Amino acid sequence: MEQRSTAVASAMDDIRNIETEMGVTRAGVEAIRDRLIELAGQRDLFPLEDFPAPDPDAGVSSHMYRLAQDDDDRFALYAQTTSGGTSTPVHNHTTWAVVVGFDGQELNRFYERNADGGVTQVDEHMVEAGTGVAMLPDDLHAIRIDGGSLNFHCYGLALERLDQREYYNEAEGTWKIFNNIDGIKEARTGLQAC
Ligand SMILES: [Fe+2]
User: Fold this and answer.
1) Which pLDDT does position 114 carry in this prediction?
2) What number of other Cβ atoms are within 10 A of residue 57's Cβ?
3) What is the pLDDT at residue 192?
4) Quick check: is 193 in a domain?
5) What CATH number is associated with residue 74?
6) For residue 144, which of 105, 107, 100, 110 has the smallest C-alpha distance?
7) In the chain, where does DSSP find H-type helix?
8) CA of 49 to the centre of ligand 1 (A)
9) What is the mean pLDDT of each run of 10 residues along the chain (194 residues)?
10) How far is the CA of 37 from the centre of ligand 1 (A)?
């Protein structure tokens, strides 16, 4: 646990420095992604049993274990686990966002807004161990996970502060506020679990 905390703190220190030096740029977020891939490569620090997925009757499809977050809610790192799969609609983040694989697979599809006010898929990437994706604040993606997984999600600002994220409601053809913070669990050392 102590080794995990040290490794996470070291990665987040580097990530703060990357953002300072490179800014919120494509190259900057890709450098953050690469630093998180390095952290996730320390596999012994993240035993799957430390991050159990929700029970089937829990009412949420995944848990987000908070591994890091600054006092001002910047630089938030979560381990997301799911056992039965989950998916999201197309959404942005309003801050930079990085997803890095650890166990299982998370399909990331990327989109652009089209002239009709909807979205058009422009790319996709299967995130799994050793890989990741990096997004700028306005970038659009949707994820789909089949079966079990544990992946790392890192954001420039904590999820509970992202109250202006948008998602595309395909059935209605409209954009709505994406307020998807269910299932966050405290996993930082020295803080009470919730
Ligand atoms: Fe996302």
Assistant:
1) 96
2) 5
3) 41
4) no
5) 2.60.120.10
6) 107
7) 2-22, 26-40
8) 24
9) 94 98 98 98 95 84 93 97 90 97 97 96 98 98 94 96 93 89 75 43
10) 17
192 in a domain, yes or no?
Answer: no
Number of domains in the chain: 1
Q: Which pLDDT score is estimated for 191? A: 53
Cα of 82 to ligand 1 centre, how many Å? 15
Interval between CA 135 and ligand 1 midpoint (Å): 9
Structure tokens at 29: 């977020």
In a domain, 194, yes or no: no
Separation CA 32–CA 14 (nearest Å) = 8
- Residue 59 has a pLDDT of 79
pLDDT for 1 equals 82
92 alpha carbon – ligand 1 mean position (Å): 6
Ligand 1 centroid from CA 112, angstroms? 14
- The parent domain of residue 64 ranges over 2-186
Between the CA of 180 and the centroid of ligand 1 the distance, in Å, is 10
Centroid of ligand 1 to alpha carbon of 97 (angstroms): 7
Tell me if 191 is assigned to some domain.
Answer: no
Alpha-carbon torsion (159, 176, 167, 97), positive or negative: negative
